[in-house]
């Protein structure tokens, strides 16, 4: 699905004014910085840095699709690194703008070119329209947690409460599809939330906001088997770390 961001802006003035406009007293400004350092997680019980859930969930994943993508770009005479970084910028922008909208903040995107901001406007619009229909209340976006029990960390995009007060989590993705490692990652996030709040997560959803305007919200069922896979991946990571096969 291709969406013309100019037409969207014309038909949704209020939403796009919040996307491009200036700060107001009821919408404080929040700045998106390019090239922020990768999040690190510290375990108090282990007294060392521990890996992030996204890193662990990728262990053993099939990279064939990415290899083909890079090969195909090469055939077109394009540098896959530049295309990758551009796509990452658009995904980061969309993610940031959505979270600002949900929090009632005004995004400062001054470090990014307007062409990328416009491209990010498509998934931004789609996701905000979906969010407004869900009846969810955010707890705290970008919640950074560490599991002292299992020894890993994670940043949960949007922990929420549903209409009936139950614990829920949303994970935003700007990929072309929802891959198995994404579901494994959410299973790890679920355990992080349960460890913090001492209650079960009732609902969990991966929200994929494609840079071409495509949209998918996949509510997931029981993820206990996926978490078994995650623990095996984590054990492999720790074994390789102990053997000196992973550089810190």
Characterization of this structure:
This protein has one domain (5-21, 52-242): Lambda Exonuclease, Chain A, CATH 3.90.320. The radius of gyration is 19 Å and the shape is globular. The chain has a five-stranded mixed β-sheet, sandwiched between helices. Strand 8 (158-161) and strand 9 (167-173) form a beta hairpin. With 248 residues, the chain is an alpha+beta fold. Helix content is 45%, strand content 20%. Helix 5 (80-103) packs across helix 6.
Query: What is the alpha-carbon Rg in Å?
Result: 19 Å
Number of separate strands:
11
Unreliable segments of 5+ consecutive residues: 7-12, 64-73, 78-86
The number of helical segments is: 8
H/E element order: HHEEEHHHEHEEEEEHEEH
Query: Main sheet, how many strands, which sense, barrel?
Result: 5 strands, mixed
Distance between the termini: 42 Å
Helix share, percent: 40-55%
Q: Identify the strand order in the major beta sheet.
A: 5-8-9-10-11
Oligomer: single chain
- CATH topology-level name: Lambda Exonuclease, Chain A
Number of domains: 1
Task: Please state the overall shape, judged from the principal axes of the Cα atoms.
Answer: globular
Reading off the top of the CATH hierarchy, the class is best stated as Alpha Beta
Structural class: alpha+beta
Mean pLDDT score: 83
- Binned strand content: 15-25%
CATH architecture: Alpha-Beta Complex
């Amino acid at each position: 699905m291709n969406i013309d961001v100019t037409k969207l802006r014309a038909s949704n003035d209020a939403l796009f004014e919040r996307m491009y406009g200036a700060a107001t007293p009821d919408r404080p400004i929040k700045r998106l910085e390019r090239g922020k350092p990768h999040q690190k997680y510290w375990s108090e019980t282990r007294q060392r840095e521990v890996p992030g859930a996204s890193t662990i969930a990728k262990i053993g994943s099939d990279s064939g699709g990415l290899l083909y993508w890079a090969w195909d770009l090469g055939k077109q005479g394009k540098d896959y690194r530049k295309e990758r970084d551009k796509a990452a910028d658009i995904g980061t922008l969309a993610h940031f703008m959505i979270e600002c909208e949900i929090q009632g903040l005004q995004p400062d995107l001054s470090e990014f070119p307007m062409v990328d901001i416009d491209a990010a406007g498509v998934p931004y619009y789609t996701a905000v329209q979906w969010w407004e229909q869900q009846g969810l209340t955010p707890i705290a976006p970008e919640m950074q947690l560490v599991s002292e029990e299992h020894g890993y960390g994670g940043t949960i995009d949007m922990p929420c409460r549903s209409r009936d007060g139950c614990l829920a989590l949303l994970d935003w993705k700007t990929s072309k599809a929802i891959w198995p490692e994404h579901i494994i990652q959410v299973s790890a996030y679920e355990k992080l939330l349960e460890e913090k709040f001492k209650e079960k997560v009732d609902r969990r959803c991966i929200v994929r906001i494609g840079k071409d305007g495509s949209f998918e919200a996949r509510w997931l069922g029981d993820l206990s088997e996926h978490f078994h896979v995650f623990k095996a991946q984590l054990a492999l990571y720790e074994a390789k770390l102990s053997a000196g096969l992973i550089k810190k």
